[in-house]
Amino acid sequence: MAQLEQWALGGRSFGTIVSWFLLGGDLYTAYTFIAVPALVYGVGALGFFAVPYATIAYPIALVVLTRFWSIARARGYVTTADFVRDRYGSRTLEVAIAVTGVVAAMPYIALQLVGMRAVFRQFTILGAGGGLTALTVAFILLAAYTYVSGLRASALIAFVKDALIYATVIAAITVIPPRLGGWAHVFALAAAALAHRPHPAKIYLTQPQYFTYASMAFGSALSLFIYPHSITSVLAARSREVIRRNAALLPIYSLLLGLLALLGYCAAASGIVSKDATNVVPLLFARYFPDWFTGITDAAIVIGALVPAAIMCIGAANLFASNVFREFSPERSSVETRVAKLLTLAVAAFALLFIFFVPVPYAIDFQLLGGALMLQIFPAFVLGLWTRWFHPAALLSGWACGLVASCAMAYASNFTSNFTLHAFGGSLTGFIALYALAVNLVVSASLTPLLRKGAPA
Fold first, then answer.
1. Domain count, the chain
2. CA 43 to CA 215: how far, in whole Å?
3. pLDDT tens series, the chain, 457 aa
4. What is the extent of the structural domain holding 348?
5. Which terminus of the chain is more solvent-facing, meaning fewer CB atoms within 10 Å of its CB: N or C?
């Protein structure tokens, strides 16, 4: 465990079953259990973008990650930035990719902390205003667990997490809708509740939402498997076949995601009112289940946030230790592993700051804004797996322009995940990540011929 590959990648030894639970634990998080139902509860049908996004991501993963795994195993890479350094021979681009991964992981980790806070807030021992105390407890749990555990412990506990989640979802779908009079009654009550929101919503998509929905689903799918925690879990697999099998098996989780999203309508139909939408799922279970089962549900949510948050911290710290700190310690060593373990604490602490200083309307916006940053490495990493055409300086310029565009649009839209473009007398509201990626690609593709033409023969 003193070696970085053992602590951060589990010795690259996980088979199909362990990888299935690890990737499931990695990708189906408090985002699934808390943020998606909360968004559906708040805005209606638009929140269901997560269901197709989590499905179409797997064909992309099948193509991209099997190729990257083969290259990484042959060359000994432990991060995407390792690949970028060797592909383009640019130390600056390597650091840019590494820093982007670290920063983009922080809002995603913040989402997991928010999910744990939603559960801990229900504990009467914290008092009526126990939000800050709950967040402190969540942070301490995450920091201690991540520092000690490494990837193997996360893989082991993912078995427990998934068992709890399946039991909870099956119970919820079996018990709650009949108590509300059946699904037809749920949809009718939810439609009435959504119509009386400060910003009225519907239980089905309206025509102006079509592009927004599609862009959120497609943009999120492109970014899902290039996050540091996704790469960490993939590189822990022992063979290409393990990744291929999991790309085929993991969509099973999307069935759960669709059912969990429907709990947002159940909460609206139940008349649950909360100033913070992240609380609606714990409140829903507390209303319809006995205390002992509500405790099981709360445990599922907390573990469902803790396991992926730990992997995210490991992935982000691994990037920094391998691709920034390595400049000062060229040989991967026990010193580098200690640095990575300490960095997991720093990453968790900075993720906590996102909760206080980035005022997102819904918790899910943390993940979506992180995806807008993460998607800016797509040209250098994903396209770089198949072509060397891009000039590294052009990629660096495109990356910088994409990040600036992402941050500017996020600020202009009050940290929501969508931005409205006005042109030719019309408007188009879409996912910030895709708009910024378009800027990135245009700059990278335009500058590459110019830089190659001006390069010495």
1. 1
2. 17
3. 556 666 656 666 677 787 777 777 666 776 777 888 888 998 889 889 888 888 888 888 888 989 998 998 888 888 899 899 999 988 899 999 999 998 888 888 888 888 788 787 777 555 545 557 777 777 777 777 777 767 777 777 777 877 888 888 889 989 999 999 999 999 999 999 988 887 788 889 988 889 999 999 999 999 888 888 888 888 888 888 888 888 888 888 778 888 888 999 999 999 888 877 888 888 899 899 888 888 888 888 888 787 788 888 888 888 887 787 766 555 555 566 677 777 777 877 777 777 777 766 666 777 788 888 999 999 999 999 998 899 999 999 999 999 999 999 988 888 888 888 887 777 888 899 999 999 999 999 999 999 888 665 4
4. 4-360
5. C
Q: Is residue 426 part of a domain?
A: no
Residue 125 lies in a domain: yes
Whether residue 374 lies inside any domain: the answer is no
CATH number at residue 174: 1.20.1730.10
